[in-house]
Amino acid sequence: MKIEVIASKRTLQGTGASRRLRRAGKVPGVLYGGEKPAEAIEIDHNPLFHAMRKEAFHASILDLKIDGAVQPVLLRDYQMHAFRQQIQHIDFQRVDANREIHIRVPFHFVNAEISQAVKFGGAIVSHVMNDVEIACLPKDLPEFLEVDLRDISAGHAFHIKDLKLPAGVRVIVHGNDNPVIASATVPGGEKDDADTAAPSAADVPATAQKKPADAGGAKAPAKKEAKK
User: How far apart are CA 31 and CA 29, in angstroms?
Assistant: First the structure.
């Protein structure tokens, strides 16, 4: 499903102009990329804010409509207000149908609850990664990558190379070429340090505590007999 973003060309630029736009319920933005020069744009804040709450908005080819002309774009960056729910600025990049794009897409985790690790191993499945960078042509861009955990077993992990990628899509990783996406660990099984530590003197009954030996092993002197 295509997501449409309606924008207008922005003639006034600068900090003061952007501040006035925000007070008027608009978001200043920039469109760049391709062989055309960058364009300053403005977008109504509220429709944009609600559209950005959808996951697909962040990993899809969007239809940006500027004064009636539609072109495919990607969301590349945006800034939010420090404490208000307000978009301060937004950047879009033009998309060429014949050129490969790089973008981060989210993972959708499925079937963890029916896996051997959870049903029979008592394991807890933890998500180590929530998204990943991919490269593909615009026509092959998936909204998400599915992570099927039905075959994961307790004490094991699901790695990048376990993914079933759509045709035309490749994953880009840096450093470790096969990082962990999710792991299944069994909690508990070990005693706390406090349970295994030796009891302190305060925990031992007074009758069981030994009196300290005298230095040199000498016996205490006997009491003198009372004079008759």
Answer: 7
Q: Coil, helix or strand for 121? A: coil
Which residues fall within 8 angstroms of residue 1, CB to CB, at 6 or more apart?
A: 56
Q: What rounded mean pLDDT belongs to the chain?
A: 86
Give per-residue pLDDT as tens, 58-72: 999 999 999 889 999
Measured from the Cβ of residue 177, the count of other Cβ atoms closer than 10 Å reads 10
Q: What string of H, E and C letters represents the secondary structure of 19-52?
A: HHHHHCCEEEEEEECCCCCCEEEEEEHHHHHHHC
Q: How far is CA 55 from CA 139, 170, 194, in A?
A: 18, 21, 46
Query: How confident is the model over 154-195, as pLDDT tens digits?
Result: 999 999 999 999 999 999 998 889 999 999 999 874 343 334
What are the helix and strand counts (H, E) for the chain? 4, 13
